[in-house]
Automatic annotation (TrEMBL):
PROSITE patterns: TRP_SYNTHASE_ALPHA. This is Tryptophan synthase alpha chain. One of its GO terms (molecular function) is tryptophan synthase activity. Pathway: Amino-acid biosynthesis; L-tryptophan biosynthesis; L-tryptophan from chorismate: step 5/5. Tetramer of two alpha and two beta chains. It comes from Oceanobacillus zhaokaii. Its EC number is 4.2.1.20. InterPro entries: Aldolase_TIM (IPR013785), RibuloseP-bd_barrel (IPR011060), Trp_synthase_alpha_AS (IPR018204), Trp_synthase_suA (IPR002028). Keywords: Amino-acid biosynthesis, Aromatic amino acid biosynthesis, Lyase, Tryptophan biosynthesis.
């Protein structure tokens, strides 16, 4: 359950000599019915976990691709409640890979924090990412998540002072999400040169694995960044490929990224 399940999955991949890869998909994009198949497909492709987004009307950290996916999901009635009950139906805890929910704070508030944490556990959710909850305000939910054995994955930004980065890394459970661009989610061709040094600092100071996310859209980028941390998170590119029915390209992206390449 939770943190241990994430750690176990990561260790399994790393001891097989692979990089970690976490795809982000928007729950309900293409219908909630296909969720289980999609997770199975990703697991078979070699991912270390799946990050599942809850659609929200005001996604401040998201660029156009994920905003559009959220609109499609909301249009077919997807809600936090519907996602949790769908996960519970197919028992995410017997899912072949850990499931990490990514949701803004507002849907959690309207659902009820205590009930949210309890229902996540019942639905087999292993970890949570809440991008609009700063460290200073996390205490209340942190306790609830702990009580229900759910890993609370923290995000760190390139603009954080070093001391704050280290504090966030210390608190993070499962892994540390290193946001590797300044701006919103969305595929980009290249990353700022400073990203590598930033990842090196995190890697040196983090007690948990470090994964870089935001702007990664190709095997080359994944390989380049993975050489400075434990792996990558890819959202917009995966969302686009699934939306275009190019599942085979998704598989190639995952498989190319998890191989330890010439750069690493
Ligand atoms: O789409 P990108 O640039 O590949 O970035 C990953 C990202 O999509 C996913 O982790 C995510 C989607 N929405 C978020 C909001 C905040 C933090 C992270 C996320």
């Amino acid at each position: 359950m939770g943190k241990e399940r994430i750690e176990y999955s990561f260790q399994e991949k790393q001891s097989a000599g692979q990089r970690l890869f976490i795809p982000y998909i928007m729950a309900g994009d293409g219908g909630l019915d296909n969720l289980e198949d999609r997770i199975d497909f990703l697991a078979k492709s070699g991912v270390a976990a799946v990050e599942l987004g809850i659609p929200f009307s005001d996604p401040i950290a998201d660029g156009p691709t994920i905003q559009a996916a959220g609109q499609r999901a909301l249009a077919n009635g997807t809600s936090l409640k519907a996602v949790l009950s769908q996960l519970r139906n197919f028992k995410a805890s017997s899912s072949p890979v850990p499931i990490i929910l990514m949701t803004y704070l507002n849907p959690i508030y309207s659902y009820g924090m205590e009930k949210f944490a309890a229902d996540c556990e019942k639905s087999g959710v292993d970890g949570i990412i809440i991008p609009d909850l700063p460290m200073e305000e996390e205490e209340m939910i942190a306790e609830l998540l702990q009580k229900h054995s759910i890993a609370f994955i923290r995000l760190v930004a390139m603009t954080s002072p070093k001391g704050r980065m280290i504090e966030i890394a210390k608190r993070s459970e499962g892994f540390l999400y290193a946001v590797s661009v300044m701006g919103t989610t969305g595929a980009r061709q290249t990353h700022d040169e400073n990203v590598k040094a930033y990842l090196d600092v995190l890697k040196e100071n983090s007690p948990v694995p470090v994964l870089a996310g935001f702007g990664v859209s190709s095997v080359e980028q994944a390989q380049e960044l993975s050489a400075h941390c434990d792996g990558v998170i890819v959202g917009s590119r995966i969302v686009d490929l699934f939306n275009q029915g190019q599942d085979e390209e998704v598989r190639k992206l995952v498989q190319g990224s998890i191989e330890v390449g010439v750069r690493g």
